[in-house]
Specification:
The chain is α/β, with parallel strands linked by helices. The chain folds into two domains: about 5-90 and about 205-420, Alpha-Beta Complex (Adenylosuccinate Synthetase, Chain A, domain 3), CATH 3.90.170.10; about 105-200, Orthogonal Bundle (Adenylosuccinate Synthetase, subunit A, domain 2). About 30% of the residues lie in helices and about 20% in strands. It has twelve helices and 20 strands. It has helices spanning about 15-25, 75-90, 105-120, 130-140, 155-175, 180-195, 205-210, 245-250, 285-290, 310-320, 360-365, 390-405; strands at about 5-10, 30, 40-45, 50, 65-70, 75, 95-100, 105, 200, 215-220, 260-265, 270, 305, 310, 325-330, 340-350, 350-355, 365-375, 405-410, 420. It has a ten-stranded mixed β-sheet, with helices on both faces. Its main location: cytoplasm. InterPro entries: Adenylosuccin_syn_GTP-bd, Adenylosuccin_syn_Lys_AS, Adenylosuccinate_synth_dom1, Adenylosuccinate_synth_dom2, Adenylosuccinate_synth_dom3, Adenylosuccinate_synthetase, P-loop_NTPase. It is an enzyme of class 6 (ligase). It is found in: Cytoplasm.
Length: about 425
């Protein structure tokens, strides 16, 4: 049975939660392998809407084991809040497993995230201020706190002391903030241990055994390819690997266990935060996409920057991740437009460029070269087969497929759980 990686194919917010939910009843494990509570999935189940931030979307599917793997940074307080909120709504959250090796976000990470972002002024990255970047920085600098440390007070105290020895100098002398007390952090983290303990396990071994037992495992990436710390629009990126390669390092499964990579891509493009965005619209067309697509952050509520579909980015994503299937979401948002532009290439200093420029400067100055496609006016939210779509919508999807480097296997045609057209099976 397969190991399937599901990733965002643009700058995030593509609808990965919907795609995960589509597969949820057919998979046994759903694994979050990167990121933290700086991004969110919105999943609609009947009349209920669920906004998930740290938890894998699979927690909403009965019988699925949701896993927070080692590549995630965990704000334990947020984790408990999210679990409690779901429990109050009748969702069974008892199956959650959390990696012993996942790193923990502390209060000093959140503080540093906010003060350093403000300190950057016009050079701000556009972080959510939730401590994600500083927690990953500590991980790389080998001064991080891991989940397993919460169960050994002596080790925890030593690690917090070591981390704060440097950070308090920065907070006081550079940012004019008060020093953070070691005891304050240790006491808070220790208070989580008893509740957290039953959830914690060696998730890499758990997933290895699951695959050996013929279980289907879905690896759900947070953020998206263009926000990957290595392959995204650096430095305007997240602090982890949101690509399919991140599923390997972020979970402990071997590369040769991956059978399929599903890229989720919107029928147009959005991003949040700063950074280059060639097809961004600052006119009524951008506002049309924002309002009709309800393009406001699940986690932050920030309005998203909106633009037309960018085919070079889709091709780049297909190549970087080894995408076998695309899930195209929010096609219904384009209903009512007389004409739909698609970016097919860029102009950089007057020269046509067909692929995403590797140079940050070139990409920043790239202007889109568009090809226009006829729109449609028919309501498509009730459509369930490709042939039922208006001919113009079919032509649009087929054009994107031919430009994007892999087949479009499913199409989102509305916000409801069942509002999806399946062209090719995503598992078999």
């Amino acid at each position: 049975m397969p190991a399937i990686v599901l990733i965002g194919a643009q700058w995030g917010d593509e609808g990965k939660g919907k795609a995960t939910d589509l597969l949820g009843s057919r998979v046994d494990y759903v694994v979050k392998f990167n990121g933290g509570n700086n991004a969110g999935h919105t999943v609609v189940v009947g009349d209920e809407k669920y906004a998930l931030h740290l938890l894998p979307s699979g927690i909403l599917s009965p019988g699925v084991t949701p896993v927070i793997a080692n590549g995630v940074v965990v704000d334990v307080e947020v984790l408990f809040e999210e679990l409690d909120a779901l429990s109050e709504r009748g969702v069974d959250v008892s199956r959650l497993k959390v990696s012993l090796n996942a790193h923990v976000i502390t209060a000093y990470h959140r503080t540093l995230d906010k003060v350093t972002e403000r300190f950057l002024g016009k050079r701000q990255i556009g972080t959510t201020g939730r401590g994600i970047g500083p927690a990953y920085a500590d991980k790389i600098n080998r001064v991080g706190i891991r989940v397993q440390d919460l169960f050994d007070e002596n080790i925890l105290r030593q690690k917090v002391e070591g981390a704060l020895d440097q950070k308090n100098h920065m907070l006081v002398k550079v940012y004019n903030r008060r020093a953070i007390e070691v005891e304050e952090i240790v006491t808070e983290l220790l208070s989580y241990a008893e509740r957290l303990r039953p959830m914690v396990t060696d998730t890499a071994l758990l997933l290895h055994q699951a695959l050996n037992d013929g279980k289907t495992v879905l690896f759900e990436g947070g953020q998206a390819t263009m926000l990957d710390v290595d392959h995204g629009t650096y430095p305007f990126v997240t602090s982890s690997n949101a690509t399919s390669g991140g599923a390997v390092t972020g979970s402990g499964i071997a590369p040769n266990r991956i059978d399929r990579v599903i890229g989720v891509v919107k029928a147009y493009t959005t991003r949040v935060g700063s950074g280059p965005f060639p097809t961004e619209l600052s006119d009524e067309s951008g506002e049309y996409l924002r309002v009709n697509g309800f393009e406001f952050g699940t986690t932050t509520g920030r309005p998203r920057r909106c633009g037309w579909y960018d085919a070079p980015i889709a091709r780049y994503t297909a190549r970087i991740n080894g995408v076998t299937d695309f899930v195209l979401t929010k096609l219904d948002v384009l209903t009512g437009l007389a004409e739909i532009p698609v970016c097919v290439a860029y102009s950089v200093d007057g020269v046509r460029v067909d692929e995403v420029p590797v140079s940050q400067s070139d990409f920043h100055h790239a202007t889109p070269i568009y090809e226009n496609f006829p729109g449609w006016t028919e309501d498509i939210t009730g459509v369930r087969t490709f042939e039922e779509l208006p001919q113009a919508a079919q032509n649009y999807v087929l054009a994107l497929e031919s430009m994007s480097g892999s087949r479009v296997s499913a199409i989102g045609v509305g916000p409801d759980r069942e509002a999806i057209v399946v062209r090719h099976d995503l598992i078999d």
